[in-house]
Design brief:
Length: 552
């Protein structure tokens, strides 16, 4: 790719016992390093490149600065690139005259036909008015974004362009920016935008942001409110992406999209918004997927005869193991109990990976303080002896009520010390035996450790501690409502991006508790959001509802 890739160094000295730096500033990455905006929405994929000019370029319908076959001789800037993303930085004029670089040179390419596919196709273009929040009138519902029960103004503190919208003096949780949108029933849409909380409520370290769609039947008066996405633990003074997908329900003729932030005293900025239709999967999606499997997960086997002559010989090959991880959750008790031979045989005949279902969780290993239950460790030892790869689930689980009762009453340093002891105990007993560890389960849903210790980034510290205690296992986040629903997809994406630069994380686990009917278009769309992070994605809990559904 014709640019210098940007990678922020991971923090080396982060730990539970010795937090480094201000809790807010440590995660508040510089906004300019992430000001990347898609030139074109899917499915066209026009730019398979990253532009890194010394200053922003403006694109026109018929001229675009290129960097594929020939690389523009301009000073390149690391912090305007992100690894493997087909994006380019733009300022407030998204389709304006192309600008020259500092040397007065530019490469141009005639993309009249292809670009017109992006900007003239109403179905997949941006449906929002004043989407970049550059226009000053935020009081008129007919001009795009407008304020409800709040004070609005333009701010020079922006994510892209020259301004963002500032919202203050909010009179209710739902008060803030809103926009009436033109959508069609039965179609799928994706909203995204960038928000920056300017403060938090008294006594709170974070704020909650919810994107909501208000359905209204103007004839019957019926209304329905659907939350498209939720980010529960957003820190102030940093730009974060919000958004989610929605399939429009029938029976309503008016649709109001709005942003609501917990606690009216919280002010915020909003910028760089979009609402686009999500195209359906192509009819041949399965053939394309199978072709990808053939290309990426299969390989030819070459057999070479070194001497002699062979005739009439049949060669039969049996694959004993696979590179692709395929496993299941197992009962720690049944996998070692001789009374469950059928259970064990079924597992060993079909799977190469295992996750101990419950017995490695803190609530199971130390239900009473200082009293250990090693059933999970015994199961790990047996599985590893049989050649099975084991995922550890989970060191911590910060959703309220999931820890042992005696832990739930701890606060501050007492909780930190208990967490350090827990980490040392469980990693010492499994040292060098596990392939993966889920470090803090379902962290976008629960932040017990953050609230109880007063350390907003303590989960980041936990990752570094577990890495120092056992360097072998690859460390994961793990969460739900990511693909079966899109409500927390953006929150998880944001968290994974931050952890990628600040912790020794390896990958993201996506719990997939699927309930029919399944919308494969949306499942793929949500997975694509996570793939953007650049970390390996593992499906950690694939569970199908008892209702009959064929999972092709």
């Amino acid at each position: 790719m014709p640019c210098v890739q940007y990678k922020q160094n991971r923090t080396k000295n982060r730990s539970l016992g010795h937090p480094t730096g201000d809790s807010h500033s440590r995660r508040a990455l510089s906004a300019h390093k992430d000001r990347l905006m898609p030139v074109c929405q899917e499915p066209w994929h026009i730019l398979d490149l990253v532009l890194c000019p010394s200053k922003p370029f403006h694109l026109s319908r018929d001229t675009i600065v290129l960097g594929t076959e020939m690389e523009p001789e301009v000073p390149q800037r690391q912090d305007d690139c992100q690894e493997d993303l087909p994006w380019t930085e733009v300022d407030q004029g998204f389709f304006r005259r192309a600008a020259e670089d500092q040397t007065g040179r530019m490469l141009t390419f005639d993309l009249v036909i292809v670009i017109s596919l992006c900007v003239t196709s109403h179905s997949y273009g941006n449906l929002l008015v004043n989407s970049d929040l550059e226009q000053g009138d935020l009081s008129n519902a007919g001009s795009g974004w407008f304020g409800r029960s709040c004070t609005t103004s333009l701010s020079s503190d922006r994510y892209t362009g020259s301004s963002s919208a500032r919202v203050s003096n909010r009179q209710a949780k739902w008060a803030g920016l809103a926009q009436y949108i033109g959508v069609e029933e039965g179609k799928r849409y994706f909203f995204s935008g960038y928000i920056r909380l300017l403060n938090t409520a008294a006594g709170k370290m974070t704020g909650e942001v919810i994107v909501t769609l208000n359905y209204h039947n103007t004839v019957t008066g019926e209304k329905k409110y659907v939350h498209m996405s939720t980010v529960r633990f957003m820190q102030p003074n940093m730009w974060e992406r919000i958004g989610g997908d929605i399939t429009i329900l029938p029976g309503y003729d008016r649709h109001l999209l709005y942003i609501q932030v917990s606690y009216p005293e919280v002010d915020y900025l909003l910028d760089t918004t979009s609402l686009t239709e999500i195209p359906s999967l192509a009819m041949n999606w399965k053939a394309v997927a199978n072709a990808g499997i053939d290309a990426n997960r299969r390989a030819d086997i070459n057999m070479v005869l070194t001497s002699g002559r062979v005739e009439g010989v049949t060669v039969e090959i049996h694959q004993l193991t696979s590179e692709f991880g395929f496993g299941t959750a197992v009962s720690a008790e049944r996998i070692v109990d001789s009374n469950y031979n059928a259970y064990q045989n079924f597992f060993y005949d079909n799977f190469e990976w295992a996750t101990i279902e419950n017995k490695l969780k803190w609530s199971q290993t130390e239900r009473n303080k200082g009293v250990s239950n090693d059933a999970g460790v015994i199961a790990v030892n047996e599985l590893v002896k049989r050649g099975i790869k084991v995922r550890g689930h989970t060191v911590f689980w910060g959703v309220p009520g999931k820890d042992p009762v005696w832990v739930q009453s701890l606060q501050g340093d007492a909780l930190v010390q208990a967490m350090l002891t827990r980490g040392k105990n469980v990693t010492w007993k499994t040292l060098g035996k596990l392939e993966h560890w889920d470090v803090n389960n379902e962290n976008v849903h629960g932040n017990f450790y953050e609230e109880a210790t007063g350390r907003v980034n303590i989960t980041m510290d936990i990752f570094s501690e577990i890495r120092s205690m056992d360097p072998k296992p690859k460390l994961f986040l793990n969460d739900f409502a990511i693909v079966n629903s899109g409500r927390f997809t953006q929150a998880y994406r944001n968290q994974a991006k931050m952890f990628r630069t600040e912790t020794p994380i390896y990958g993201v686990g996506i719990q997939s508790h699927l309930t029919p009917p399944l919308d494969l278009t949306l499942i793929k769309h949500r997975l694509d959001q996570m793939v953007e992070v650049g970390l390996p994605v593992w499906i950690t809990e694939l569970v199908k509802s008892s209702r009959q559904t064929k999972l092709d």
